[in-house]
Amino acid sequence: MMKMYDVIIVGGGAAGFFAAINIAEQNPFLKVAIFERGSEGLTKVKVSGGGRCNVTHAEFIPSELVQNYPRGEKELLGPFHQFMTGDTIEWFEKHGVELKIEEDGRMFPVSDSSRTIIDCFLNEAKKHKVEILYNHSVKSIEKENSLWQIETTQANFLTEKLVIATGSNTKIWSLLKSLGHTILQPVPSLFTFNIKDERINDISGVVAPNVEIHIRDSNFYSEGPLLITHWGMSAPAILKLSAFAALELAKRKYKFQIEINFIKKTGSDCLDILKKLKNNLAKKSVFKSAQFDLPKRLWQQLVLASEIDVETRWAELNKKQLEFLANQLTKAVFNVDGKSTFKEEFVTAGGIDLKEINFKTFESKLFKNLYFAGEVLNIDAVTGGFNFQNAWTSAFIVAKSISQ
Fold first, then answer.
1. Phi-psi region at 254: left, alpha or beta (left = phi > 0; alpha = psi -120 to 50)
2. Which helix (H) or strand (E) holds 171?
3. Domain with CATH 3.50.50.60 in the chain
4. Superfamily of domain 3-188+344-403
5. For the segment 235-249, what is each residue's pLDDT rounded down to a tens digit?
6. How far is the C-alpha of 120 from the C-alpha of 124, rounded, in Å?
7. Residue-wise over 11-20: b if at least 16 C-beta within 10 A, else e?
8. Which residues pair with 352 in a beta bridge?
9. Residue 312 has pLDDT above 90, yes or no
10. Does pLDDT of 321 surpass 60?
11. What's the CA gap between 21 and 362, in Å, rounded?
């Protein structure tokens, strides 16, 4: 005999737990279960933010918040008017988790531990009698009259309402495709750039605080901090670019060129400043006197790349060297050859076509009582807590829709 639930949630991640807890809170008469394919859930929550869990971002205006979503910007505007950052903060505080805002706007639990979030979810699930079925990998999903029939590796189940919150799970996408949903091919959306270049080979760990980067032969552009790593480049400026240009970079097989303006000035303005420095710092070594608030090691590499010797003084610079240096500072070109995953946080562009979703409820337009939450949809964001905010918002609206 098949076991019956009122609501089954496939996926024991952030969106799945958040949906389950909110459903059980809003309607305690519903029998709710979470199916998790592994032996433990919330694994992505565990590693988020380096183990601290970047819960959300301190952006409180929906029209500003949506600009952090390369895919989903238009669709999330309405949902964010229903549940967004302030609601997230209030929800966690009500459930005993205080959040704090860091300088860059990212928000973490005051404990600085993802365990706080995990324990909160597990305790609330237990309190509200949400059943968590581990090692239940879904094998098939079928519609039987008004009910959903789910076959897992352990047993068969029936439910009236089905929530898919599996993130970037290709097996679940295949099952949904066989039902008739359109799946947009997933590609990586949050990654660092692999670059081998003499200018950065020996200066890993150096941060340029505010740069402009654009992908050559495209309109893709970003700005912000840039980190030199032992494999190439990372930090927000790169990660944001990787997210917004995800589909284009996949087409290029991750071989492309970027142009970096390290000082956010035009080439001609930079040249004018360098000419003044030539007079004002005449007797000083160009190599040793870093300018434009650039880290000393980065400045020195750009000086050497401009065919300026270590011993050269400012007064000795010729027109060609000044132009070369201005070029390195404002239009430095780097060849990117490949990508690396950003820490353990793997995000993809791709998933269920957003045209097939009712964003007032996050219900399928193709099937009644089939709902989606989180990254199983073709929605993704830049780094900084935005992907989690999508999970909380979509899961809360799903819960509200199901509970009413």
1. left
2. helix 170-179
3. 3-188+344-403
4. FAD/NAD(P)-binding domain (3.50.50.60)
5. 999 999 999 999 999
6. 6
7. bbbbbbbbbb
8. 183, 377
9. yes
10. yes
11. 17
